[in-house]
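Student: I would love a firmer grasp of how sequence relates to backbone shape in proteins. Thank you; the sequence and its tokens follow:
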Amino acid sequence: MSRRAGILVSAVFLAVLVLPALPASAGGGCHGGATQGTGDTVEIVDMCFTPSALSIQPGDSVTFVNTDPMVHNVGGTLWGHYDDLNPGDTFTATFDQPGIYPYACSYHLGMTGAIVVGGGLGSGNGETVQVSSFEQPEPSPVVQVRAVTEPASRAPVAIGWVAGAAIGLGIGLGIATLVRRKTTNTA
């Protein structure tokens, strides 16, 4: 195998290992698969609506609870809560008509779910959904106070930058080597 082919194979191997992990580490969406459930609560946990498909009866209410440490929202067709749902915030929606009411978080692609009302047969267009405003979380007592004199760890961001720099350096060196060899062979 020539040196050029070895460099090319190494660069492709590195890209195959690193590139699939980059979008997953960016977040967005439930990567564990769809979950089904009954009841009256949808929890937002680990960037997922849990359950992602909830079955209820006409007239029932569903409470959405953000248990994630980040901001989300819940948007459906003509219904939902498009404002920020901060950690601990909740809101309730009442579904009067049978149908399937899909929803998603507009901040995190792939983070989707659906409310199945009755047998799921009906328009499900959201015109009859009553949405209450979200509730602010109760203030929690301060358990521990810590003086911060230096910024919090930026390790995950630093790892991303290092990985990006390593990939860029590898690709740049590979291209430089190919260009150098081509100019050397033509001279």
